[in-house]
Amino acid sequence: MFAAHPGRLELNAQEEIMMQIFSSVLSVLMMVLVLGCSSKGGVNEEGEGGDEASAQDGGRGAKAGKYSYGRGKNGIGGAGGPGSPAAQRVIYFGYDSDDVLPEYQSVVTGNAEYLSNHPDASAVLEGHADERGSSEYNIALGERRALSVARNLRLQGVGDRQLQILSYGEEKPATSGHEEATWQRNRRVEITYQGR
Amino acid sequence: MKIRSFLRLCWFIGGLLLMGSFPVHAELMVDITQGGDGAMPIAVLPFSALGVPSGSLSPVIASDLEGSGKFVVMPASRFPEQPFMPAHPDFSLWQQQGQEHVVIGRIVQGSQSDTLYAEFVLYDVIQGREVLSERVPFKLNETRHAGHRIADLIYKALTGERGVFNTRVAYVSASGDGNDREYRLLVADTDGEDPKVVMTSPEPIMSPTWSPDGKKIAYVSFEDHAAAVFVQNLGSGERQKVSSHSGINGAPSWSPDGTQLALTLSKDGSPDIYILGIVSGSLRRVTKDDSIETEASWSPDGLSLVLTSDRGGKPQLYVVSAQGGEPRRLTYDGAYNARGVFSPDGRKIAMVHGGDGGYRIGLMDAEGGDIKLLTAGRLDESPAFAPNGQFILYSRKDSGHDPLAMVSIDGKFKKNIKIKGGDVRGASWSP
């Protein structure tokens, strides 16, 4: 609390004179500066500055967090390549459902045949959800879809060891947008073959 | 004139010039979409420095106060006078303008050359008295935070509640498509300013949540092409992988004492709730069911957890003792209730409520009952309470909107938070 005696700059007489001079120069400079800023379009200027600052401050985090990977998401190479029965690798689902719809049974069967005939091949079943609803519930839903496809593949003779389950929930949409046509394409399981 | 004094002076003046170049347009950042009731009129005069108005502090304070929905800030163009401290405002002049409170302040140099002080007085111009006078020390590069601290003091003095302008939000932003997609975990001021990157990854980052001491963030990262839960220290940047079982490792929630994390794991079959001792590494299972159990969130007393379960066919909220036992269903209103979170006083639960019109933020008593909808968007999700319990932060996925917004718990006041670039996934408010 300082109200009775507000704090003041501690200056000697010499500094006081300098200060007065600086003060008037300062007023002019600040006016120039303010005018300058507004004429340059303050918002963009500031936006770029902000990015720069965050890039700098993020250096530490980025160091901890920048990752490179040996395999890309679709590093499927020749396994089950185009022309093979496993060329189709995406199964789509209904809202909040993990049922493999009849129209996608042939896709599952094609991949089941490939995997049964190639016991050394293995695949990751990536489960996905549309963006609606909470993200962690959608992770659970994506896993349920991947498990549903896994069960279906196993029934057709695919070995347990050939399959891995991974749910990305709504985090990796196949396409962006906020309407049913988009959501339909995002409720899916992608079968991703591992190299070799 | 001694060289040291001269340098000090140059430094001070240079600093003020820098401050002058701070965003004077900060008040433009506040994008109030729906006003609250009974907002108090207040005028925040430009803080003076060396007898000239400085553009640095008052816009931040004005923007914070206006952005709380509890105040209507008088535009500078309507100021009837512009006195500088230590002069008093002419109370009758401000009364005539319909004002109730006036803030007047100045910036002075401290005895340490890198410290400045913001001195201010809050006047009640109706009663013609001083409500509050304070001196806030700050460093030049912390000017915005000094403004937030002053706004907190004014807010507390006039509303009786804790101000939350000097707190932060954490969120994940995703941009780009396919192989160019990048996920960033950021923390920013609650007005969206001063964003700082905590980590980036080409693989998804999810569900950031602040530790109760505000020093760490727990989050889910898919950087190893599998889900894992990490705890990262914000000060040092050090991070620790605390959970990487096969299957889902998700939905981290800190116990109120900061020693445990509630998690969702599917290592034993379907997703269930577990409690992990962060230091001990001990793991205790809380729920056991073939259905989905996820999104556990602690009650403030640490005794129970609210969670999402579809054991009844559709996702609904349940509450379970942190010791385990049978979950008790809380929500019966609607076909979709998920992501429940307790208010800081433990008396309310906010959630995502799905209905015909879309997904909205709902609020109900912690014991269950009717759900009051606070928002009206199509895809409003990820509710997080402000530490004073007065506001709920949430994400808006629908196009044509800013991705983050906040709403007062009575639903009457709404505000967008400006975030640059990408869509925003998940948000958490610091303690």
> Percent of residues of chain B in helical segments?
10-25%
- Radius of gyration of chain B, CA atoms, in whole angstroms: 24 Å
- E-strand count of chain A: 4
- Percent of residues of chain A in helical segments? 40-55%
Main pleated sheet of chain B: 7 strands, mixed
**What does the radius of gyration of chain A come to?**
30 Å
Beta fraction of chain A:
5-15%
Number of strands of chain B: 32
Please work out how many helical segments of chain A DSSP would assign: 6
| Percentage of residues in DSSP E strands of chain B | 35-45%
Classify the oligomer: heterodimer
Termini separation of chain B: 48 Å
Q: Strand count, sense and closure of the main sheet of chain A?
A: 4 strands, mixed
Outline type of chain A: elongated
The outline of chain B comes out as elongated
What is the succession of H and E elements of chain A?
Answer: HHHEHEHEHE
> Would you tell me the overall average pLDDT of chain A?
70
Greatest chain-chain contact: A-B, 68 and 91 residues
Q: How would you characterize the overall build of this protein?
A:
The complex is a heterodimer of chains A (196) and B (431). Chain A is an alpha+beta fold and 196 residues long. Chain A has helices spanning 13-39, 42-57, 59-65, 102-117, 135-155, 180-186, and strands spanning 90-92, 123-128, 163-169, 188-193. In chain A, β2, α5 (135-155) and β3 (163-169) form a beta-alpha-beta unit. Mean pLDDT of chain A is 70; it is low at 1-22 and 24-83. Chain B is mainly beta. Chain B has 4 helices and 32 strands. In chain B, strands 2, 3, 4, 5, 6, 7 and 8 form a 7-stranded mixed β-sheet that branches. In chain B, α2 (58-67) crosses α4 (143-159). Chain B starts with a helix and ends with a strand.
